[in-house]
Amino acid sequence: MAQRISHALLTLCLMLMAVASDASEQTSHWLSNTFRIDPSITTLTLLIEREPNSAPVVLIRPDGSKYYESDHPDTISWASTPDRDVITLRQPQPGPWQATGKVTNNRGITLVSEFELVVSPFAERLYQHEVLKLEAELRHLDTRLDANFYLKDLSLQAQLINMRIDPEAQFAPAPIVVGEFKDDGLGLDAIPNDGKLNAEVLLDILPGEYLFQTQISNQVLARTKEQTVLIYPAPLKVSFTKPDEAGNWSMNLAAQHELVPSSLVVTGELVTPRNSAFL
C-alpha cells in the first residue's frame, strides 16, 4: 500500500484510484497535506477530514494564491461540515496543491477524479398515491463507492417539481420532497453499508407532469439526476356498502382495466368520526 501511495505521489495520474476494487477507498496521507494534480485532470473532488468543530481548510494553488470556503471562484464547489470539507475543482491548475488546517491523521485527504450519481429510472406509468422503491449509487468509473462515507452529514433526496406553469405566480414552484435514499439496512434497504442506497417514494401529489430530481444536499459531489414523469390519477375506485342491521359494512376496490388486480398491494388508514384510526 505504501508503494502504491508513493507511486501516486510521483505520477498522480490521479485516477488516483482514490477508490480501490470492491468499492473500498484509498485514502492518502500526503506530506504536509500537499498533493499534485496531473495536467490531464479536468475535474477533481477532495474530501478533507478535519478535527471536530475546526475551521474549513485553506487551499493553496501551485502559484501560491489561496482559496477559502467563503471566497473562491465559480469553478469551485465547496461544502463544509463541522469536521469535513468537500471541494470539487473544475479545470484545476496542474502542479502541487496544499490544504492547510487541522487535517486529521486518520482519513486525511481523499481525492477522486470524478463522481457519478446512478439512479434507477421510473416506470413509464406512475399513479397518484403509488409507493415506489428507487435505487441509487455513487460511482467512480466502474466502482461503487461507500455512500455512507461520502455522504456523511449529507442527504440524497428524491423530489418532484411541478411542470405546470402558473402565469400569475411570482416564484418558481418549490420542489416537493417525496423520499430520501438510505444505506442503513432499514425499510426498503436490504443490506446496510453495501453502497446501494434505497428510497421509499410516496407519490402523494396531484396528477400531472413533473420533473423528478435526485440530488445530494450540498450539490458538490455529483450532478443532479433528472427525469420528466407523468403521474396519472389513482387507478382504483373505492366504494362502501351501507351498514346492515348488525352495523357491518364493507369497502370495495375496483382496479382499472390496464392493471392486474392480483398484482396490487393496497395499504391505507381508516379514520372513524371519533378520530379512531385503523390500518
Question: Could you please describe the fold and organization of this structure?
Answer:
This is TIGR03503 family protein. Residues 1-23 form the signal peptide. This protein has helices at 2-11, 147-150; strands at 34-37, 43-49, 58-60, 66-67, 76-81, 84-90, 95-100, 109-112, 116-119, 126-127, 131-140, 143-144, 156-162, 176-181, 197-202, 208-216, 225-232, 236-240, 251-255, 270-271, 277-278. With 279 residues, the chain is mainly beta. It folds into three domains: 2-112, Sandwich (Jelly Rolls); 117-232, Sandwich (Immunoglobulin-like), CATH 2.60.40.10; 236-278, no CATH class. A five-stranded mixed beta sheet has the order 10-17-16-13-14, with no helix packed on it. Strands 1-7-3-4 form a four-stranded antiparallel beta sheet. A four-stranded antiparallel beta sheet has the order 5-6-2-8, with no helix packed on it. The longest helix has 10 residues, at 2-11. The chain starts with a helix and ends with a strand.
Topology, element by element:
Layout: H1 2-11, E1 34-37, E2 43-49, E3 58-60, E4 66-67, E5 76-81, E6 84-90, E7 95-100, E8 109-112, E9 116-119, E10 126-127, E11 131-140, E12 143-144, H2 147-150, E13 156-162, E14 176-181, E15 197-202, E16 208-216, E17 225-232, E18 236-240, E19 251-255, E20 270-271, E21 277-278
Parallel strand pairs: 10-17
Antiparallel strand pairs: 1-7, 2-6, 2-8, 3-4, 3-7, 5-6, 9-11, 11-12, 11-15, 13-14, 13-16, 16-17, 18-19, 20-21
